[in-house]
Automatic annotation (TrEMBL), chains A, B:
<dbReference type="InterPro" id="IPR046450">
    <property type="entry name" value="PA_dom_sf"/>
</dbReference>
<feature type="domain" description="PA">
    <location>
        <begin position="146"/>
        <end position="215"/>
    </location>
</feature>
<dbReference type="Pfam" id="PF04253">
    <property type="entry name" value="TFR_dimer"/>
</dbReference>
<dbReference type="InterPro" id="IPR007365">
    <property type="entry name" value="TFR-like_dimer_dom"/>
</dbReference>
<keyword id="KW-0732">Signal</keyword>
<comment type="similarity">
    <text>Belongs to the peptidase M28 family. M28B subfamily.</text>
</comment>
<feature type="signal peptide">
    <location>
        <begin position="1"/>
        <end position="19"/>
    </location>
</feature>
<protein>
    <submittedName>
        <fullName>M28 family peptidase</fullName>
    </submittedName>
</protein>
<feature type="domain" description="Transferrin receptor-like dimerisation">
    <location>
        <begin position="626"/>
        <end position="732"/>
    </location>
</feature>
<feature type="domain" description="Peptidase M28">
    <location>
        <begin position="327"/>
        <end position="528"/>
    </location>
</feature>
<dbReference type="Pfam" id="PF02225">
    <property type="entry name" value="PA"/>
</dbReference>
<dbReference type="Pfam" id="PF04389">
    <property type="entry name" value="Peptidase_M28"/>
</dbReference>
<dbReference type="InterPro" id="IPR039373">
    <property type="entry name" value="Peptidase_M28B"/>
</dbReference>
<dbReference type="InterPro" id="IPR007484">
    <property type="entry name" value="Peptidase_M28"/>
</dbReference>
<dbReference type="InterPro" id="IPR003137">
    <property type="entry name" value="PA_domain"/>
</dbReference>
<dbReference type="InterPro" id="IPR036757">
    <property type="entry name" value="TFR-like_dimer_dom_sf"/>
</dbReference>
């Protein structure tokens, strides 16, 4: 205890000392000191017990999109913002949202089994047996009534189907069963459909988040045999939001697509099940034993199928238009009212959503309370602050996407930054987003103390990285680096439309790593579970509120916005090198594999009693010309250096013009055509992967073309990305005075 | 079929072409052609159906050391050798062999469970329910009656106890349960005892060779819930063989140690159990959840303990002296009767032992039959051929070790080579042993055709290596290498006393990789199992017989023995570089870890709700001086090159003197003092690892000192190994004319 206390003091001294050494990024020595004082006041107003109280209150009933509980939650949030002194209103959209009408899953042979498709309520968890819960289902799968042989497809990703093909197995006309994990769930049925499957079951293997991972709920945090992960399987990597209104806000009178023309609604029925329901199905499979890495923790030998196991899957949905209630709450900026520092977190859940999304939402509401307290002292932000509580994130970022599409021009004109959070738990700070904000986030992460260790959250994160880095070399690199990296953003939360469709500078901030469990999207994501396993007392809720609060306050008050495009350059340069190495390693691997195929090596190494097909010869990988990209990066470096030299916060230049230039710079990275086959995604640097879903692909046009061995497109996309980077480079060059 | 046939022809043409190109190593063009003809005759005499018949006959009843069935098997083997024209006799030793009198394992709390400790016979497998089977037990654990808390220790290796310590758990006064796998089983109770445990249970986790790996017996080849792996836990890395007669043959009147003074008998009771019996014990464990890599495939959360789970283990053994029946069978050499080409495989099993050892033993007997057929044609080997069927290998290489100790001087004088085999199955050729025989074995492996692919067994092995190599770089290295490597030998079969105690040049040859299963040392290692899963029809038994047959015949007939010390040099040079890299990487890792500890990094990264102790600061690793070793290797290179230039088989030099020099050269690598703390092991290059058991440690004196962070001893051992290599270098230099 003593040691920790000493460290705590040291941490605080370090923060204070750092503050004295040099002003905050974008501030003058005077405004910096004042800013730190404001942040101190802000921090004092943040209350973990109040966050916990909010979380308990808002998680008391199911509150999914379109539900009475969802409306109540939106109204409660609206009232809070108003009480705190925000100018708040509900902004509504009419969005499509399928809920289940019929759910049947049964095995008709070799034995009969009818799936239970229901989680069991638990006495210890008072909300787990409530009325009004959405049944276990995946939204956006097709209506369907299909019967077919069952095939186990591991995680259901493209590589898995290659493995199946090497075993001589295809899934045409069959129903696949994939396990949750590795990729976003929506990829699994999409890839199944691409391979000709007629239905897709997704189950939670106990190896992933069940008893293999730890004791199951309610004894421990992990998934018990009845737990099911609900979730969207919308083909969100084409576009997120309402499937019927791509690119425009789903207002009452918006022009809507016919449902059958909506590209993001899947073509086959999809159903998530528990491991209780998966067990008899998987155990009945015949055919080859599944490859070792495919096997889970159920107590039998995993086979791939197909065989005598025949499954009947029947699903029907209510395809209703429902109202999404976004809550938008503003504090008007004193100096630059038309520059908006935006902050958001969704409020809808799949069931009670104590952790997802309320751990983030309740923290955000406490930030609003603390800002309200500051307002009462007469304090005013220079820029406007806009808080957003989104509805309909769970089914596919509906509330945020419709809002962003509805206000696209205004946001591209006014939004300085969009700062997102979502579910969090005890543990380590992490952040992602626009890399021009990397140094800035480094500074923010040094301004908040971690309650478990009493060092800054940035220092603790670094300690975790150091311990987990694989080699002495990578540990040394982490120790020596000047800027702590932020992640690139893919999808999976409301930041996506702001960053990837509009080019608004974006941040996503969170905490986690010590709150593992299996409650995600189930009836067990409850206040009881949160209090026991995720973040008891919402201690880290308060840490999140402080971290995001500092971020908001600094962005709102900085003399010069704290962007540094030199960080962006360094990151992009890293991506460019990565891509060149990827292409060259694919060239070597392909040549070697073709040589081995030619030499009959695979056939010689194979066990003739097992059906195995040698890999097919692939076209040799041509040399790809990265010179346009390299040249554009040189130009970006020059532009970024030049701008950095002219962003002294204490100078007499017109900060308004400079700032407006700076925060709109990210839009230079948009390409008007968007990404190949998914034009909604306009950012040339960040996108969710076509086959990863949430997982990011950086420089996605180039990277995915290489991964898909489409060499012509790779070369075209190098031109496109280089053009965007060149545009940004000359934009920065002009901005620098 | 057509394609395979074409390949087959091509393979044969390749063999033939190769033969025409240049004479076999150690032969003249004329003697080489004659030799190939002899081998062809030999191959024609090998019969897979006869091998299978022998295997079925010898596996008909349990035949462990000291059993009536064991004696019958020895006598049957003796008769065969005599029938084939060998001069054969039984050589007997009186050896200690514990068999169980009392076996009790029960959990007394929190619930009561009495372990079954018996495998269930299976109707489909006629020998599985026979009388006379040894019960499930580990030989050489102590008598004992202990009760204590249970702790799960993963594989029970030193690293696992470090992990336990970091969780604040020690095993003093407790009973540990370790799972089979990773190391040789005898290491587990030894390390448990070193850490203060009072008893050790070893169980077969279904993840290792049970349902996780594949369908269980009798449906598939893997271990069913009652299967138990018997086996020796003798501390064989001190010395193998009869614990009462270290270093000398256990003849009737040999001087024997008191049992309590025998260093290789363990000090705590040890018992192997099935996963049926392990399940309730492991499920009752409390304490921290086991680290992810520790968890097996039983359907619950693995905990480490200790807690309410209390276990009572009571074991008593009959510590009897029994007779080991070695069968020794000779064909007298026509030219050099006092040069012995030795060939061995054990005949004792734990139960019926169809695979272990009879798959190897039956093949060996067919070699003898084929040699007998050659004798009948008037053919005679130049050198004497000595076939050995060992008893008592299973409890600790008793038959072979006692024979080798009993005949140590004679063997060092006469043994040109000892060629071993043991259990084999369908699949890939592999060989290990003295690296001066590496090129020779490369030639042998090109002289036998693989029946599944119709290329040479060497080519098929290389195909397997190529497919499984991790990187393009390592695939390229495999493609480009001139000599296919043979493995270094540790322990686990009868080659150990010849190579590591006497310095007799040694080879161990086998096939496997396509016969996976869980029958090892259980009642299910039966003819039925072998015929279904290991090597149906003993097809690979015949391949082994041909491979070893060619090896024996070439060694017996070569004009100049086919040793090439340049291969040895290259291998030793590789070891030396490996060791220097090991020391330097430990230096870097230690420095980095100490730095992280000093900076409190581990504490900062730890979850404070979990009991975890940061690693302790370790002494920095000094710079170790490898120059003596490097210099000795330079000398060896010169000596090997010089000798290679003077071993032309067609020359007029006195081959007898040259050959005698060559085959005794390996003895130069022995150190009179032996390895630190285990003087029985005299070879400075090859030994079983002190903490791996079967697994080899090359340059063990140096390597283990480094691994144990004993820097003084590492430096001393560099001197010792360099001295041995220098001795060999000048020996070769003198031998070269």
């Amino acid at each position: 205890m003593k040691k920790l206390f000493a460290l705590g003091i040291m941490g605080l001294i370090a923060v204070a000392a750092n503050a004295q050494q040099k002003p905050l990024m974008g501030f003058t020595p005077v405004s910096s000191a004042k800013q730190l004082q404001t942040e101190q006041q802000f921090d004092q107003a943040i209350s973990a017990p109040r966050i916990n109280e909010t979380l308990k209150d808002l998680s008391a009933y199911p509150h999914h999109l379109g539900s009475p509980g969802g409306k109540v939650v939106a109204e409660k949030i609206l009232k809070k913002f108003k009480d705190y002194g925000f100018d708040a209103h509900l902004q509504t959209y009419k969005v499509l949202f399928p809920t289940p009408k019929t759910r049947v899953l049964e095995m008709t042979g070799p034995t009969k089994y009818t799936a239970i498709l229901k989680e069991s309520a638990i006495a210890d968890d008072p909300t787990s047996g409530q009325e009004g819960q959405l049944p276990t289902y995946n939204a956006w799968g097709a209506d369907g009534d299909v019967t077919g042989q069952l095939v186990f497809v591991n995680y259901g990703l493209p590589d898995d189907y290659e493995t199946l093909a090497s075993m001589g197995i295809d899934v045409k006309g069959k129903i696949v069963i994939a396990k949750y994990g590795k990729s976003w769930r929506g990829i699994k049925p999409k890839v199944a459909y691409e391979h000709g499957a007629i239905g897709c079951i997704i189950y939670s293997d106990p190896k992933e988040d069940g008893y293999f991972a730890g004791e199951v709920y309610p004894k421990g945090a992990y998934k018990n045999e009845t737990g099911v992960q609900r979730g969207s399987v919308m083909d969100m990597v084409i576009y997120p939001g309402d499937p019927l209104t791509p690119g425009v806000g789903a207002t009452e009178n918006a022009k809507r697509l016919d449902r059958k023309d909506a590209a993001t609604i899947l073509k086959i029925p999809v159903l998530p099940i528990s491991y209780q329901d998966a067990k008899p199905l998987l155990e009945a499979l015949q055919g080859p034993v599944a490859p070792e890495s495919w096997r889970g923790a159920l107590p039998f030998t995993y086979h791939v199928g197909p065989g005598a196991a025949i499954v009947h899957l029947k699903l029907e949905f209510n395809w209703d238009l429902v109202t999404a209630y976004d809550v938008i709450a503003k504090i008007k900026g004193s100096t630059y009212p038309d520059e908006w520092v935006m902050r958001g977190n969704h409020h809808d859940a799949w069931v009670n959503g104590a952790d997802d999304p309320l751990s983030g939402q309740s923290a955000m509401l406490d930030e609003a309370k603390a800002l309200g307290d500051l307002l009462k002292t007469g304090w005013k932000p220079k820029r406007s602050i806009v808080y957003c509580a989104w509805d309909g994130e769970e089914p596919g970022l509906l509330g945020s996407t419709e809002y962003a599409e509805d206000h696209d021009k205004e946001l591209q004109q006014k939004a300085v930054v969009y700062i997102n959070s979502d579910d969090i738990s005890r543990g380590f700070y992490h952040s992602g987003g626009s890399h021009a904000l990397e140094s800035f986030m480094g500074e923010v992460s040094e301004s908040v103390i971690d309650p478990e260790t009493n060092v800054t959250v940035g220092q603790r994160k670094k300690a975790d990285e150091l311990v987990n880095a694989g080699s002495v070399k990578s540990k040394r690199e982490i120790m020596n680096r000047k800027t702590d990296p932020i992640e690139a953003l893919g999808s999976g939360s409301d930041f996506s439309p702001f960053l990837q469709h509009l080019g608004v500078p974006t941040l996503d901030i969170g905490y986690g790593g010590e709150g593992g469990g299996g409650e995600y999207h189930s009836i067990f994501d409850s206040f009881t579970d949160h209090e026991r396993f995720k973040d008891p007392g919402s201690v880290y809720g308060a840490v999140l509120a402080k971290t995001v609060g500092h971020t908001v306050l600094r962005m709102a008050n900085a003399n010069v916005l704290p962007f540094d495009f030199r960080n962006l350059y360094a990151t992009l340069n890293g991506y460019s090198r990565e891509l060149a190495e990827l292409a060259s390693s694919m060239r070597e691997t392909t040549a070697m594999q073709n040589e081995l195929i030619k030499n009959n090596t695979y056939a010689l190494a194979a066990d003739p009693t097992k059906k195995q097909t040698a890999p097919q010869v692939k076209a040799e990988v041509p040399v790809i010309d990265f010179s346009a990209l390299t040249a554009s990066l040189e130009a970006l470096k020059a532009g970024a250096d030049k701008l950095a030299a002219s962003t002294d916060a204490a100078s007499n230049i017109d900060h308004k013009i400079l700032n407006e230039t700076i925060y709109k710079a990210e839009q230079q990275l948009l390409s008007p055509a968007g990404l190949p086959r998914r034009p909604w995604y306009k950012h040339t640097i960040y996108a969710p992967g076509f086959y990863t879903g949430y997982g990011v692909k950086t420089m996605p046009g180039i990277r995915e073309a290489i991964e898909q061995r489409n060499w012509t497109e790779a070369q075209q996309q190098i031109t496109a990305v280089a053009a965007a980077i060149n545009a940004l480079a000359s934009y920065l060059d002009k901005a620098a005075m």
